[in-house]
Amino acid sequence: MAIERTLALIKPDAMARKLEGKILDQILERGFRVVAMKKIKLDKYEAGCFYAVHRKTSFYDDLTTFMSSDEMIALVLEKENAITAWRDALGATDPAHAAEGTIRHTWGTAKNRNICHGSDCPDSAAYEIGFFFSGIEITRSNPEVSQ
Ligand code: CMP
After folding, report:
1. Which of 47, 63, 92, 111 could potentially form a cystine with 42 if both were Cys, beta carbons 3.0 to 4.6 Å apart?
2. 124 lines ligand 1 (CB under 6 A)
3. pTM of structure
4. What is the extent of the structural domain holding 115?
């Protein structure tokens, strides 16, 4: 399996409930390396760009209003098979259907208040990491470059 990177967001509902410490514990306990991390508040336009793929859905307005309602934490996570591993850690989009022990099962309250985001495929991960982080913020440990 290849070492991959994925984009994780700790969403406003988690921040409002002061769950960021517990979620960071989960990230580390599950063996992810945190490549980069920042606290950020999007405006509605920026949230709309991030979720542009959902722009024709009935929930787009609620989603972008919610995702621009407060600060979030954005992280680049790295491990083998990171995209699937992080989505497995989260559980199903709807917390009511998420498996026991997953982050959304433990803390999520509704499909539109589901605590964290994770990229769903390599193309999304590349777009989403680039949305939040510049190259210099995610360049680490290049063995071919001497310091
Ligand atoms: P996330 O993983 O951030 O990706 C898109 C988000 O849209 C998703 O989590 C949910 O919070 C939200 N979402 C997806 N489907 C629905 C739906 N049917 N109704 C409301 N919100 C949804």
Report:
1. 47
2. no
3. 0.95
4. 3-139
